[in-house]
Amino acid sequence: MGVPFEALLPFGIIIGSFTVGGAGLWAVRKWDNEGKMPRWNKDKWDRVMMERDLRITGTKRGQSSNHEAPKGFELSNPWKIEKRIF
Amino acid sequence: MASREPQFNQQVLVDTTPMPDHIPKVEEIGATSAPLYSAAYFIGDRCKPYNDDFMKCKDESNGRGELDCLKEGRKVTRCAASVIKDINTHCLKSFTAHWECLENNNHKLWECRAQEMKLNSCVFEKLGLKKEIPGTPENVVPVHLRPKQIYSDWPGRQY
C-alpha cells in the first residue's frame, strides 16, 4: 500500500522553509560579525573598547595591531550628552 | 569613564578642537581591543614603574589628576606603544595568531592557551618580557601554564 506523493509535499515545504530560515539567520549573523564568532556577555568595558575599535578601524569587528593610531583618532572621542532634567 | 551612563541620550558630541599648543603631543596607541588584551601582560611587565607612577600621581592629586598627571600619562602611552611595536617587529606571527584566536572566542584567554604559549615563549626569547599574573600564590601552577583549562570548549590538553 503505497503512500500517495501528495501526502509528502507538505513535509517538503516544512523542511524547505526551516532550511531557508536557518540559512538566512546564519548568513545575517555571519555578515553582521564580519565572519567572526559573535561577542557575547559584553560588559561596559567591552562595549567601550568595541566603540574604540570602530573608531580606529572603521568597521564593527575590525582589529588592528598598529602601535600608532590613525590621524585624527585622538579628536574623534564622542561624549554622550543628555538634556538636563532639572 | 563616569560610573553613571547617560540614560536618555539621543546624541553624541564629538569635539574636534585640538589640544592647546602648550600641552605636549603624544602618539595615541592604534592597537584595538584584541591585540591590546593579548599584549597586556607584556605591557604590564615592561611598564610597571610608569603605570605605578601614574596611578600614584592620580592618587595624590586630589581629583586634578587629568591635568596634573599629563606628563606621567604620556610616559604610560609611550611605553605601551613601544611594547606593541616591539612585539609587532619580533613576534608578529604568533601575536597575530593569538589575537585572532581571542577575537574569535569572545576574548576568553582560556580558549587560546596553545597560541598563548607560543607567543609567550617568543616574546620571552626576543624581548625578555615574561607573563606573570599578579597575586598568584607561590605553591600553585599559574593558570596560563596549566595544560587543562576547566572552562574551555576543548576539554583535553590545550597544548
Structural write-up:
The complex is a heterodimer of chains A (about 90) and B (about 160). Chain A has about 90 residues and is mainly alpha-helical. Chain A folds into two domains: about 30 residues; about 35 residues, no CATH class. The longest helix of chain A has 24 residues. Chain A is elongated, with a radius of gyration of 23 Å. Chain B has about 160 residues and is mainly α. Chain B has a domain of about 110 residues. Helices cover about 50% and strands about 5% of the residues of chain B. Chain B contains six helices and one strand. In chain B, helix 2 runs antiparallel to helix 4 and helix 5 packs antiparallel against helix 6. The N and C termini of chain B lie far apart (about 40 Å). Classes of the chains: A mainly alpha (about 90), B mainly alpha (about 160). Chains A and B meet through helix 2 and strand 1 of A and strand 1, helix 1, helix 4 and helix 5 of B.
Summarize it.
The complex is a heterodimer of chains A (86) and B (159). Chain A has helices at residues 9-32, 44-57; one strand at residues 78-81.
Nearest-integer average pLDDT of chain B: 92
The oligomeric status of these chains comes to heterodimer
**Overall SS class of chain B:** mainly alpha
Low-confidence segments of chain B: none
The major beta sheet of chain A can be summarized as: none
Order of helices and strands of chain A: HHE
Helicity of chain A, in percent? 40-55%
Major sheet summary line of chain B: none
DSSP summary: helix tally of chain B = 6
Mean pLDDT of chain A: 92
Please state the overall shape of chain A, judged from the principal axes of the Cα atoms. elongated
Count of distinct structural domains of chain A: 2
Strand segment tally of chain B = 1
How does the overall form of chain B come out from the CA principal axes?
globular
Helical fraction of chain B: 40-55%
Radius of gyration of chain B: 19 Å
Q: Which spans of chain A have pLDDT < 50 for at least 5 consecutive residues?
A: none
Largest interface: A-B, 37 and 40 residues
